[in-house]
Amino acid sequence: MPTAVKRVGLTKKLRFEVFKRDGFRCQYCGGAAPEVLLVVDHVHPVAEGGKNDILNLITACQPCNAGKGKRTLSDQSVLEKQLDQLTELNERREQLEMMIKWKAGLSDIKDMAVERVAEHWSKLVNGFSLNENGKQSLKKLTTQFEVDEIMDAMRTATDQYLRVQEGKYTQESVEEAWAKVAGICRIRRTEKDKPYIRDLLYIRGILRNRVYVNEKTIMSMLEDAHVSGISIDYLKNLAKSCRNWTEFQTDVYEYMDSLSGDAK
Hints:
Structural class: mainly alpha
Oligomer: single chain
Distance between the termini: 99 Å
Radius of gyration: 35 Å
Low-confidence stretches: none
Order of helices and strands: HEEHHHHEEHHHHH
Shape: elongated
Number of strands: 4
Number of helices: 10
C-alpha cells in the first residue's frame, strides 16, 4: 500500500504572495475576488510529490480547485506559468538591485556635495572649518535647500557677521555667521513667493530696537497689513514714530478696518 503524502499547510504570508502575484484571479477560469472565493492550488499535486514552493503554487477559485482534484494543468501551461514566474522574479530582483545602486549613488553624490560646500565655507572663513557636528548640520541643510542657495547664504552671512581682530576672523563671529546660514536660506526661499518679506523684516527690526513687540504675532500682522493694502513706507514711518507696541498695533488695525470699509 502506498504511503500517504503528508500535506504541510501554507502560511498566510505565502498565500498572500501567491494571490498578489496572480492579481487575485483564478488562473483557470479568470474569476476574481471578491466575486469568487480564492484558494491556493498546487500546479504539481502534493499527492504526486508537489512542494509548497511559490513556483508550484497558483491561485484558483474554489469551484475550479474542487473540480481539478489531482489533475495538473497541461504540461505546456505548467511550463509557461513557471517561466513567467521566473521571468517576473528575475525582473523584480534586477529592479531592486538597480534601485539599491541608484540610492547608493544618490547618497555618494550628496556626501560629495556636503564636502564641496564645507570646503567653500572654509575658504570664506579663512583659518576655520566645520567640525563633524557642523558637517551633520550642513548635510541636513542640503535636504532642505539647493547647494547654490546654501552657498549664497554662506556668502551673505560672512559678509554681514564676520569680524576681524588682530588680522584674523574671530571665532565668535565665525560661529555667529554659521548660525545665520539656515535662517538666510529660509528667508531667501520665502522671498521668492513673498518679495515684500525683506521689508517686513526690516520693519520688525526697527520696532525691536525701539519698543517691545509681540514676537508671536508681529510678522503675521505685518503681512496681513501689507496684503490688505497698507504700504511698506507707511509701516516703516509708523514703526519709527510710534511710542509703544500697543500704539503701533492699534494704528495698523484701524487702518486695515478703514481699508476694509472702503472696499465694501
